[in-house]
Amino acid sequence: MLKGKVALVTGSTSGIGLAIARGMAAQGADICINGFGDAAAIEKERSGIESDFGVKCIYDGADLSKGPDAEAMIANTIKTLGSVDVLVNNAGIQFVSPIEDFPPEKWDQIIAINLSSAFHTTRAAFANMKAKKWGRVINTASAHALVASPFKSAYVSAKHGIAGLTKTVALEGATFGITANAICPGYVWTPLVEKQIPDTMAARGLTREQVINDVLLDAQPTKQFVTVEEIASLAVYLAGDMAKSITGSVISIDGGWTAE
């Protein structure tokens, strides 16, 4: 389905991003993965994508808190793989704190990585997509693009911003064969979610089990975590030609969270 295409997935050395990158590769796309982590572990994932799916896969360690780095990553991918046909803006971080104690530097960092990086990568890739009259921008938003939770002021603000950016890009790309959509997962069991549990315990005075059952899964009527494979399958569908009329959409995959 994606043979001859190139997909760049930010924040893809683990979790949701890695699942999306592997899903795109399984459909024949060449891949650029991006993110931080242990160099040997990243190389194992990169080479694994190549050997498992018979595609090219490169790694770019761009620091997405810096706009010039994000733009350079797009340029490097186009130079090395020939294009950026599918751009998946997935990189994200989290910090949980009452707003009166929320460190301003954490606000700046979250806005930079979770929101501004998507602007910088999309801006840099858009001319290439327009020239080819084909492109897919897929943004990993969150249920927090639609509803709020306490103690997550920066994250909720960034994800609401991603929803607005997605709609704007969809309108600008509509006559050029470019779609833009946002996937809004509920709670997914990833390192990002696991790492925020201690902070939520402290902020709310709860045990680990209470955070999982009474805070995280309480929001989802299914009482189950969303899986990375489910999100990857949706991303792959949005990248295909059968989804060419889906654009500007903010799509929930949250076990019913935002239905309430």
Produce a short descriptive summary.
Helices cover 49% and strands 13% of the residues. The protein is an alpha/beta fold and 260 residues long.
Q: Residue share in helices?
A: 40-55%
Please summarize the sheet with the most strands. 7 strands, parallel
CATH class: Alpha Beta
Name the CATH superfamily classification. NAD(P)-binding Rossmann-like Domain
Strand order of the largest sheet: 3-2-1-4-5-6-7
CATH-defined topology: Rossmann fold
Overall CATH architecture: 3-Layer(aba) Sandwich
* Percent of residues in beta strands: 5-15%
What average pLDDT do the residues reach?
96
- In N-to-C order, the SSE pattern is EHEHEHEHEHEHHHE
Distance between the termini: 35 Å
Extract low-pLDDT stretches: none
Helix-strand makeup class: alpha/beta
Fold and architecture overview:
This protein is of the alpha/beta class. The chain has a single domain (6-188, 227-259), classed as NAD(P)-binding Rossmann-like Domain (Rossmann fold), CATH 3.40.50.720. It has helices at residues 15-26, 39-53, 67-81, 104-132, 153-173, 191-204, 208-216, 228-239; strands spanning 6-9, 30-34, 57-60, 86-89, 135-140, 178-185, 250-253. Strands 3-2-1-4-5-6-7 form a seven-stranded parallel sheet, sandwiched between helices. The longest helix has 29 residues, at 104-132. It is globular and about 50 Å long. The mean pLDDT is 96.
